[in-house]
Specification:
This protein is mostly beta strands and about 350 residues long. The chain has a single domain (about 30-330), classed as TolB, C-terminal domain (Neuraminidase). It is about 0% helix and about 50% strand. It has no helices and 33 strands. It has strands at about 10, 15-20, 30, 55, 60, 65-70, 75-80, 85-90, 95-100, 105-110, 115-120, 125-130, 135-140, 150, 155-160, 165-170, 175-180, 190-195, 195-205, 205-210, 215-220, 230, 235-240, 245-250, 260-265, 270-280, 280-285, 290-295, 300-305, 310-315, 320-325, 330-335, 340-345. The model is unreliable at about 1-20 and about 20-60 (pLDDT under 50).
């Protein structure tokens, strides 16, 4: 249950959105050192510490603003750089779009098959995205132009990440694998095979992913080689984010309010639960201090310290928010319903 509270309206480009959140009950909050029932790091995970707090999240009280109104289309996937927010318009037009972080007019960078657009990433030069039905990895310059196909005919190209040198993606059908290709083009390489990878992230010299079939989080050198099991579980893994210390992921449950946000050190160790009792968590992001996520059915944007602690509700009533991204000052998300397709909250 959530009790509504009055809030102000912020208008960007003539669009208003209400902020302010009431209390939620049933949300479990854990310390970073607490163990995860039924989950282990390769073998067994030990209970390393007590829960920090259980109860209702607090409300930050900041007010979200609309960067791109719903009239610009349905935002699917999200990425940010130093100046702009990027997304895929999944309303049928297949457009890759961007808008300044401070607000303004949304700009179309490229067009493509919208029905299968899946994931988006950005580096200092290009925007990259995948198409699942068409099995392609594409790019376009930050200023826009004709899309360039880096790879095609792939088995269900899904989530992707980029490090400025290579693009990495998950192929989740026919021949499930983690693959890569140079950002300038070339021959796709298989980084890991024999898994059913879902979401993907890169940090340092490693690639990390969640696995649907095997359950858990895995990693491998960007050059390929032996796969490391960071944590295993009974399945339900979806989105993943990494910072310099840990990998964070969502374990989704088919039962209402039984999904969890988990963490495991990149160097190995026992996984931990940062938050449990979540309705339908979707996208997540991490900035080295906190972990952020959107709860699709609950309509909230939340965060928790990367080391564990109270969950903070940043925004509620957000109309089925899905994807999340962060920078030094703000958190951004996509909304499937309501006045805004792309939203921003400052400070985060």
């Amino acid at each position: 249950m959530r009790a509504s509270t009055a809030a102000a309206l912020v208008f960007v480009a003539g669009v208003g959105v209400s902020a302010g959140c009431g209390a939620r009950t049933g949300l479990e909050v854990f310390g970073h050192l607490g163990s995860v029932p039924g989950i282990d790091a390769g073998a067994e995970a030990s209970d390393s510490g007590p829960d920090v707090e259980s109860g209702n999240p607090s409300s930050k009280g900041a007010t979200p603003v609309v960067l791109a109104p719903a009239s610009t289309g349905v935002a699917w996937a999200l990425a940010v750089d130093g100046t702009s927010v990027y997304w895929i318009d999944d309303s049928g037009s297949g457009l890759v779009k961007k808008v300044p972080k401070g607000g303004g007019v949304a700009v179309t960078l490229a067009s493509g098959p919208a029905s299968s657009a899946e994931s988006i990433a950005v580096d200092a030069v290009n925007v990259y995205w995948t198409t699942t039905n068409f099995g392609s990895v594409l790019k376009v310059p930050l200023a826009g132009g004709a899309p360039i196909t880096l790879a095609s005919g792939l088995p269900y190209a899904q989530s992707l990440a980029v490090d400025g040198t290579n693009v990495y993606w998950t192929a989740a059908a026919y021949s499930p694998s983690v693959m890569s290709i140079p950002v300038g083009g070339g021959v796709p390489a298989t980084v890991a095979q024999g898994f059913e990878p879902y979401d993907i992230a890169v940090a340092g010299t490693e690639v990390y992913w969640t696995d649907v079939a095997m359950g858990g989080v895995f990693g491998v050198s960007k050059a390929g080689g032996a796969v490391t099991t960071l944590a295993t579980s009974a399945g339900g893994e979806s989105a993943i984010a990494v910072d310099g210390a840990s990998a964070y992921w969502i374990a989704q449950s088919p039962d209402p309010a039984k999904s969890s946000l988990l963490a495991v050190p990149l160097g190995g160790g026992a996984p931990s639960t940062l938050a449990a009792g979540l309705d339908e968590p979707w996208g997540i992001a991490a900035d080295g201090t906190s972990v952020y996520w959107a709860d699709l059915m609950d309509g909230t944007i939340l965060k928790v310290a990367s080391g564990g602690g109270p969950v903070v509700t940043l925004a509620c009533g957000q109309g089925k928010p899905a994807y999340v991204a962060v920078d030094d000052t703000s958190v951004y998300w996509t909304a499937n319903e309501g006045p805004g397709a792309v939203m921003r909250l400052t400070p985060k």
